[in-house]
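Problem: given the chain below (58 residues), write out its structure.
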Amino acid sequence: MTVAPPEPDQEPTGPGEDEESEPKAPELPDPAFPEVLPGGDPGPGGAPEPEPETKPTD
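Solution.
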């Protein structure tokens, strides 16, 4: 069994992609836009939070 050579350390951007030419939106929510919650739900005053799948049977 042959072992593949270690891949060279490279930037997350692909070849020929410049971050300056087209800034990509970060995966984490931007603190400058708190109304945009992770999951695409609207902020305060928008859709209510989804109820938990499992409810206590007390």
